Fold:
Amino acid sequence: MSITVEINGEARRLEGPLSVAALLHLLDLPREKVALERNREIVPRSFYDTVMIEGGDRLEIVHFIGGG
Amino acid sequence: MGVEVSAVEQDENVSHDSWEIAGRKFSSRLIIGTGKYKDYQQNADAAVAAGAEIVTVAVRRVNLSDPNSPMLIDYIDPKKYVFLPNTAGCFTGEDAVRTLRLAREAGGWDLVKLEVLGDEKTLYPNMPETLRAAELLIKDGFQVMVYCSDDPIMAKRLEEIGCCAIMPLAAPIGSGLGVQNPINIRLIIEQANVPVLVDAGVGTASDAAIAMELGCDGVLMNTAIAEAKNPILMAEAMRHAVIAGRQAYLAGRMPKRLYADPSSPLAGLI
Structure:
């Protein structure tokens, strides 16, 4: 089943159902180096395997970069 | 001016000169930023040369088109350095809380640097919003080191609401103008019961030394090192400057006099 979500402000079509962990794997992002917000709620890392992405979700995936 | 300490106490102070922030002990009083460097490797080398134990970091969206682009934490190890996530780019308390909650999830740290800017040209802090954001963050369990104006009344207020460090600017962010208002920095230090750090505005080593001679507990800088022609050498210079300024503060400087006072005795002149 194809779903559309917004990741970091960009619309993306994904093959669902998939978990947060599966999404990070798909995006080639190491889970221990990022933090993720789903519909403005933080998804704790320990929930990545159980929280499922749904159509219409708005996701923010962030990491640390250089800053002052 | 100066602290009243015996010679023995002074020696103790210099050799075991550590400071504490939110229950954590540090020996380096120089915090460096991780922005504006040529690359993360140069940044990592500068952190070593500076002898830093704490580095500030920003929280931003990952680059989805290039997930394999270099990541800061591959160069600067969060196990070796305390990461101090900042709220750069946040203009409201809610933005700051949202950003730092993500930082806490990414790194597990609750020690954070709050900065809420109010003007793009001067990057001056928006103090009413900074106060509000600090309250929100403290309520949410964060230990807040706060970037602020050099107004002693605002500094006091930030301490009263529970900020763990007060960080007034020496001069506007990235300006390199040095300590513009030493009187206010000194007033803030004298009234504070939490660490006071000069954050922003340092341009060269003497600026850092001046901040430390005023009695600051530490100095936070980014551009002064990152934009030096040789950032690694400047990082080392800053390490020395912060130590020198600290030691001069502890040593207690001589009084200033209007006229000369000979160093060689006048008695016994032929």
